Amino acid sequence: MGSPVIWVVAFLCIAIALAISSWAGRRFQDFWPRLGAAIIASIVGVCLYPVLAALSMIFAPGKLSPHYRAMHEVVLIADVGVVLASLLGAWVLPIIFSPRNSN
User: Fold this and answer.
1) DSSP letters along 25-39, please?
2) For a FRET experiment, which of 19, 40, 63, 74 has its CA 20 to 30 Å from that of 81?
3) Model confidence pLDDT, tens digit, residues 36-70
């Protein structure tokens, strides 16, 4: 179900989207800036996937046809993962890592 290199590329795109949105989630408190940052992080992650997948063809062993097919098999998983990670980073992680006031 895909080359390991393609899975690394998908994970890298998800991690970058999560990093961008979690930074913005901690930085902004209002709804609209968080939503804008989540959308920007999603766009960056989704646009970064084909670029990194094409660059990873340098490391593809053998013929490029199976690698290209694997890139198309994983694209939906990578895109959904990027969007979910950006929403998680913008809203859930700031709540989890916020300092709690214990009286």
Assistant:
1) HHH--SHHHHHHHHH
2) 63
3) 999 999 999 999 998 988 888 777 767 777 777 88
